[in-house]
């Protein structure tokens, strides 16, 4: 496995791929050429991905349930909005609506 790691370290194509792809995608891509090394890397990465999401969820819930917001009713909807990776395009939404003029 050390020889594979040395080969990987010295290969310019893999260095470029490492900078272009996400870490998990990079190791999945290398699975065909370096299966043992790739599997070891993926196994070590898996716990961090799941614990990161869990910690992010707990932090969000703690912030939401602070003393200021103790009367929050719909926690699941609020959590979904807070943890979503989708960013609202407010400018686009506003541009598609016609403003109401006062008479």
TrEMBL record:
<dbReference type="InterPro" id="IPR008906">
    <property type="entry name" value="HATC_C_dom"/>
</dbReference>
<protein>
    <recommendedName>
        <fullName>HAT C-terminal dimerisation domain-containing protein</fullName>
    </recommendedName>
</protein>
<dbReference type="InterPro" id="IPR012337">
    <property type="entry name" value="RNaseH-like_sf"/>
</dbReference>
<dbReference type="Pfam" id="PF05699">
    <property type="entry name" value="Dimer_Tnp_hAT"/>
</dbReference>
<dbReference type="GO" id="GO:0046983">
    <property type="term" value="F:protein dimerization activity"/>
</dbReference>
<feature type="domain" description="HAT C-terminal dimerisation">
    <location>
        <begin position="16"/>
        <end position="82"/>
    </location>
</feature>
